[in-house]
Specification:
6-stranded mixed beta sheet
């Protein structure tokens, strides 16, 4: 095996110039761990400078961290793109074709492929914003560097300045309700709804559904609702602990999260104003009277976080003057205006599984009726996430942390969202019955009392 130290460039937020940074302690540690002289690789890599290849087995038995690496028994699917994290990762590649975006952190990329030269063996490793160690056999190293590798820069990775991460926002530690005599209106064009709003909670490089028990195992996410949501979250932890930034406080301990919005001009994360969440029915032909209460512990995903162009089913974007909704973040949204991302989740449940291996196949989209494979109609969840444009911002520079595609293209194509049910089930059953099954379009009101008045969730904001 040959050890190659790949020195990535770091981008200074104070300058447009790039400079290669070499951490000597990292260099010494990497060389010592493999036991042979290191070859410093510049951006203009020449495979003829590799020298003598020594047979080592440093890749054997190396486990991948954060769930996106591969070993000999888990070959990556052909042509796939696998994204790293901003932590220090170990990425194991067994066979091509595969593309790996290392992202930030000091990563170890272990290429253990045995394929011959050719397109089927193509392995592309894109650089990140850390100092990475690439270990691979001579055949693969020559193939990667000479034919397909693009590195020594940040590639298409959205840079996040972690020094500008916002502080977490405290939520309410109790359930809060009010009472009024305002009856909700009837259905709007046959659509019933229960609407509630959740404020910003915190940002983490975690994804409790896709990368469970892997802290730092994803791109940066923005969370709403349960203040304790993180990589270690479970149904029990969400329903029994954590405060809430949603209307009504801990009456709703659900976790809602989306990729973080970044101003690429500065690398600064942008805090959203709120997420209006609609639980509704009727738009896709589902009779509201047939809805069932969302089961405890259900989790689901909307959108495709790997999309690199407009994809039906992904998020839609708008701001005043943008000419309606589109698949991309609109440019030139005026300071003080709202940029809104709308995400619609599938409504039909298979009636058995609270999750699935791909986190999507236990749910399906309704088309007049729910399909026989997913016969249980639930309230359809819609996110309406709003960011207020700060003074001096150009929204043409805004991208999601999952927008890891050609930087010359607009941001927003990879819009997606995750949801994990943490409602007090008695409250969820009440708004299902008193709003949907009773043919009302409710906003925060959820419980019609015997005297005709309504209980409602006190607004968090």
């Amino acid at each position: 095996m040959l050890t190659v130290l790949w020195f990535h460039e770091r981008v200074s937020k104070h300058s447009n110039r790039r400079s290669v940074t070499i951490h000597q302690r990292r260099l010494r540690r990497a060389v010592a761990s493999v036991g042979l002289a290191a070859v410093a690789v510049s951006c203009e890599y020449d495979p003829s400078t590799v020298g003598t290849v020594e047979a080592l087995s440093q890749c054997a038995g190396v486990d991948a961290t954060h769930g996106f690496g591969y070993n000999g028994s888990q070959d990556p699917p052909g042509g796939s793109n696998h994204v790293g994290t901003n932590g220090d990762d170990v990425i194991v590649i067994a066979n091509g074709p595969v593309t790996v975006d290392a992202l930030g952190g000091d990563d170890t990329i272990c290429i253990n492929a045995v394929d011959e030269h050719g397109p089927d063996a193509a392995i592309t490793v894109r650089g990140g914003l850390g100092d990475d160690t690439i270990i691979g056999n001579a055949l693969t190293i020559e193939s990667c560097f000479a034919e397909t590798i693009s590195g020594c820069d940040s590639g298409n990775v959205v840079y996040v300045d972690d020094t500008q991460l916002p502080a977490a926002r405290p939520g309410w530690s109790d359930a809060r309700f009010g009472t009024n005599n305002l009856q909700p209106p009837g259905p709007d064009q046959g659509v019933t709804a229960f609407r509630t709003r959740c404020g910003f909670s915190h940002m983490l490089y975690d994804d409790p559904i896709v990368a469970p028990n892997q802290p730092g195992g994803s791109h940066l996410h923005t969370f709403f609702g349960n203040t304790g949501a993180d990589a270690a979250s479970t149904t029990a932890s969400l329903t029994n602990s954590g405060d809430s930034t949603c209307d009504g406080g801990i009456a709703n301990r659900s976790a809602y999260w989306v990729p973080t919005m970044i101003d690429t001009a500065t690398g600064a994360p942008i805090v959203p104003d709120h997420n209006w969440v609609y639980y509704k029915s009727g738009w896709h032909g589902i009779d509201p009277a047939t809805l069932q209460t969302i089961p405890a512990g259900l989790r689901t995903i909307a959108g495709d976080g790997m999309a690199q162009s407009g994809v039906w089913g992904n998020g839609r974007w708008s701001c005043p003057g943008s000419g309606g909704q589109s698949f991309e973040i609109p440019a030139n949204c005026a300071p003080g205006s709202i940029v809104e991302m709308t995400l619609v989740f599938p409504q039909c449940w298979d009636g058995v599984n609270l999750d699935s291996p791909d986190h999507q196949s236990h749910m399906a989209v309704a088309n007049g009726v729910c399909p026989p494979t997913h016969p249980v109609p639930l309230p359809e969840i819609t996110y309406n996430v709003d960011w207020i444009v700060p003074p001096g911002h150009d929204t043409a520079n805004w991208r999601l942390t999952s927008d890891n595609y050609d930087l010359s293209l607009p941001g927003g194509y990879s819009a997606h969202g995750d949801w994990w049910n943490g409602w007090d089930q008695n409250i969820a059953e009440t708004w299902t019955t008193d709003c949907h099954l009773s043919n009302f379009s409710c906003t925060r009101s959820f419980d019609q009392l015997a005297d005709g008045s309504w209980r409602f969730l006190l607004p968090f904001d």
